[in-house]
Amino acid sequence: MIQTALSLLSVYVFILIGYLVKLFFKDKLHQKSLVLVSVYILQPFLTFWGLLKKDLDFDLLSTPLFFILISLMAIFFNFLISKKLFTNTKDRSIFTVAGVIGNTGNLGIPLGIAIFGEGSIPYTTMINLANVFVVYTLGVYFYSRGNFDVKKSLLNIIKLPILWFAILAIIFNLAKIEIHPAFMRSLEMGAYASIVVQLMIFGIYLYSVKIKELNIKLQISINIVKFLMLPILSFFIIKYLPIEPFSKAILFMECIMPLAVTNVNLSALYECRPKEVTAAVFSTSLIFLGLIFLYLPLIHILIKS
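Structure (tokenized):
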């Protein structure tokens, strides 16, 4: 339990650094520039490097495929009820997709190691890949829908390089094309820089959040979806899936991750209320610190199923 708590807290250090940087430099620091660097340069490094770290094993594909299925079901459900809860297009977009896009990479992978050991790495890596495709397809679509029509939103998906780098990496992996170790080290540098910059962007936007300016209804709705609806939905689906108990437990853990910092990147990139999204990411991250210990018994139930 202590190891789990330390794994969580170690990630939050860079969020604090981002917050302090904005506190001291204020308007001298333009966060939108960091978002552009992260989305268009560093995240493609992370994706390409991560997909080349391990040979693709088709025995592992069932777990991320089920992750995508659960994500699609949750997004569809959110989309339906968003029309009844909110009148503003941006609020609908945020509610529909934010709670489903979890932190499966920066938090999910290290937390998987802390709870399940290194044997979880292949599964969490593949689930994170599945999440990347959800983020940069449906995530881009809904966040850009806050300001753009359907056609423009679909074009925004195609324009982002991370999707193309993911496809390229899969081709390299399946074709057994080896990358020179020196180049892999450069990719690794960019990958770790991406993780750090994403967390710092979160902290920077967090500085600008003012509680009195937030849509409290939206914040509460997102947290209910994230920590009540999605865990219940995913638990009862996963419990009856035809996969190994170990895979079930890891899949459930990834489904309950707090909101990913990528939500902040996309909402800022498409000007879909990034402060509102930052507050949602922060609140779910704080609540998760306590709830993870309540979810551990459910994880153990799945391991024994």
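The two ends are 22 Å apart (CA to CA). The chain is about 80% helix and 0% strand.
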